[in-house]
Amino acid sequence: MRTIAWLTAALVGFLIAGCAGVTSAPSQEERQALAPTGKLRVALYTGAPASIIRGGTPDESKGVGFDLGKELARRIGVPFEPVVYPSPGAIMDGLKAGEWGGYAGGDAPGLAFETAEWIHKKEIAAICTDTWGCEVRPNESEAGINQPWHWITIPIMGMTMGEIFYLKELAEDCAADNVYEFMFVAPAIPITGAVGSPTNPLAIK
Question: In angstroms, how far is the first alpha carbon of the chain from the final one?
Fold first, then answer.
């Protein structure tokens, strides 16, 4: 049995583990692994409490990913540098180039509103994508209606969705052994009253 770690684009699951595990001063090797540039650079996307909501100044910004990154940087003794993504394609370009670009809410392929009926008929429990929001953007809806697919699938159908998944390594592994079935586990942070959370996703084959 092999376990393949799925990294979210925001890498927040990794930060959570890091914050939980740092109980003493890290070694130089550990610090180098976390902050090879001398700064802890954390990829975030705007407009979501699970990542970052920009404030009037950088110090006034907040969000689960932002706060976890800031705290981890403090614990390992390096400067914190949040890097915010403007579009889904930018993150893949950044990964290929070995640098962070920007990410959130740009044009992207995804599920149209009309797929909600098919999803309900097939009783699909969860959907994960490597885009910012699962739903096609720009939304195929009337002016003033934002993310209508979410309106139906989350509160009415009760479907769970995962967004901003980095799927390249999993896709390559499945292609290599021709096995496309696996157990998917994605424990979330138990935040009271929350409707979303960073996860630590694993594909177990």
Answer: 6
Describe the strand order of the beta sheet including 3-5 as a list of residue ranges. Answer: 3-5, 202-204, 183-185
* Whole-angstrom distance, CA of residue 167 vs CA of residue 190: 25
Element (H, E) at 72: helix 64-76
Residues in the chain: 205
Number of domains in the chain: 1
- Find the domain containing 31 and state its range: 1-103+187-205
Is 48 within the bounds of a domain?
yes
DSSP 143: T
pTM over 0.85: no
**Residue numbers of the chain with a pLDDT score lower than 70:** 1-24, 45-50, 58, 85-106
Q: What residues contact residue 3 under an 8 Å CB cut-off, 6+ apart?
A: 202, 203, 204, 205
8-state DSSP, 131: S
The CATH number for 20's domain is 3.40.190
- Per the listing, tokens 């990829």 go with 43
Q: How far is CA 103 from CA 25, 46, 50, 93, 133, in A?
A: 32, 8, 14, 11, 11
Structure tokens at 21: 């595990």
3-55 confidence digits (pLDDT tens): 554 443 334 444 444 444 445 677 888 788 888 888 888 877 665 566 777 77
